[in-house]
Sequence to fold (263 residues):
Amino acid sequence: MPELPEVETVVRTLTPHLPGRRIVAAEFSSRFVTPGNRKVLARKVTGRTIQSVQRRGKFIEIALDRGKLTVHLGMTGRLLLDSAPGKHTYGQFTLDAGTLTGTLIYDDPRQFGRILWNHDLSHLGPEPLEVSLEEFQARLKRRKSKIKALLLNQTFLAGMGNIYVDETLFAAGVHPLTIASRLTKAKAAAIHLHMREILARAIRLGGSSISDYVDAEGNRGWFQLEHQAYGREGEPCKVCGTPIRKITVIQRGTHYCPRCQRR
Fold:
């Protein structure tokens, strides 16, 4: 699933091309639209001008001169500029003439994504790259959840997912089953620091392309080459050589080093 760095990269590759463009036609598949009438949504967005493209957590918000489209990419969703529709295309925007593109398509092989109209995102927690250390530590102290589960909770922090939680906890030397409220100030500070550093580095490298992910211009990311824990079950830890172990936390595969991340 695209996480904060991947979604941010998509937004950054859309931003030079979309603001100021007018939507002259739109088509959707009903199963991807919320509320679920594709023809009604097409009428609402046709003729509207795109004002901005922003990210909130794992969501892409496309503000129009009237109303707002919100896109969640699910597991394999992609927003692609100037790309021909294919068998997995479930949304298509035709834009007024521009220098680089006349179309924006939504492509989704596994069909878990959604296109939402005027969707409220007020339930989301703070942004990981913006939350202060003091607020982060205070929020941890109030929670009895396992730290892996808590960091995946979008009402706690918006945008973290399996990849970047595993990578953050590895870098911080924190076992994924540690109870959040029992973390020392030093460990909480380490999580906060490494989370921000890893997310920023992943954004610079265009995210992690593990399966279907590409940015809006079709480019793959490169951060997967720097993964220390995620997806490395049985491989030697790059720090100590101990085989990376995989467990399940809230039905999510979780990778960690049993030596570097002791309980």
In short: DSSP finds six helices and eleven strands in the chain. The longest helix spans residues 185-204. The mean pLDDT is 95. Helices lie at 4-14, 38-45, 133-141, 147-152, 162-172, 185-204.
